[in-house]
Amino acid sequence: MVIEIIEFTDPACTWCWGSEPILRKLETHYAGNIKINFNMGGLVEDIRNFRDAHNDIGGDLSKVNAQVAKHWLEASERHGMPVEAKGFSLFSEEHPSTYPMNIAFKAAQFQDEKLAKIFLRRMREAVAAEARQVNQTEVLIELAQESGFDVAQFIKSFSDGSAEKAFYEDLKITQAYKIHGFPSFLIKGNVGKEILLRGYQSYDAFQEVINHLTNGSLVAKRIEGTEEAILDFVNRFGRVAQVEIEVCLNLSAAKVTERLQSLKKQKLITLLPAGNGYFITPRVEPLSCNSIAGMCSF
User: Fold this and answer.
1) Which of 51, 108, 114, 189 has its Cβ near the most Cβ atoms within 10 Å?
2) Domain presence at residue 198
3) Local structure of residue 36 (DSSP, 8 states)
4) Domain membership of residue 242 as a residue range
5) Residue 93: inside a domain, yes or no?
6) Domain co-membership, 143 together with 7
7) Is 298 part of a structural domain of the chain?
8) How far apart are CA 282 and CA 231, in angstroms?
C-alpha cells in the first residue's frame, strides 16, 4: 500500500521550508509506502500587491525584504530550519514575484521527476538559508545545473511557455481545493479516500491521518538514533539540517550535536554554516567527480 502526500507549496514559503524535517521523517519511517509530490501554488504573484497583515508584510517595496526576513527568522525559532536574514533581497521592482521559481520547478519536471524534487529542495536552501535571489533566471539556471539538469533543455522549457502553462494548471488545482495558504497537504489513500490538511503540520498529525486512511495497517518503522543511522540519513539526502536529524531519529539537540562531532572527527561528514544554523553533508575527498553534473571539483 502506498500513501500519496501532495504538498501545495511555493519554493519561497518559510513554513514549507519548515516542513522539510517532517516530510523527510515520513519518507524514512514509511520507506516504500509513502510517495511525496508537489503542486505549485504561487505564493506571491507581485509583492507590490501582496499583503500579510498578520506578519506585517507588504505595502512598501523598500521595506518588504526586511519584513520577510524578520518573519522568516521568527518562523525559524519554531521550525528550526536555518534562515539567512543578512543580505536578504529577494524582491525588487524588476523581480517582484515568486512565480519564476514555481515555473522553474515545472520546467525541471519535464526532464526528470526525481531530479525536480532535488531541485525544489535546492531552491528552498538557496532562498531561505543563503539569501540568494532565486526568482532571477540566471540563479535558477545555476541551481538547475547544480541539480544535474540539461541546462539547454531547462532554459528552453522555462522560456518557451510550456513550463508556465504547466504551472497555471497547478494553480487551477490549487484553486479547485480552495487553498489560500501554504503549505497545505492532500493525503491520498486507496479507493479515492483523501484528507486535506491546511498549514504547517506535525508528524503525529500525518501519522493519525495515515492510520485513518489505512485502518492502521501501515506501521512506521522503528529506527534507533545511532551514529550509523545519522550517517545513513545524511548519505541518503546529501545535505541536511540538524533539526532534520533530531526530528527523524527522535533525538535531542544535545545528543545529535554530540554524535555529529564524533562523525566529524572520523572525517565522515562536513558541517557547512548556513544562516542561523548549518547543513551536514557527506565528507568527500579533496578531488571528486560528480557523474550527474559531469564535473570534477576540489
Assistant:
1) 108
2) no
3) E
4) 238-290
5) yes
6) yes
7) no
8) 8
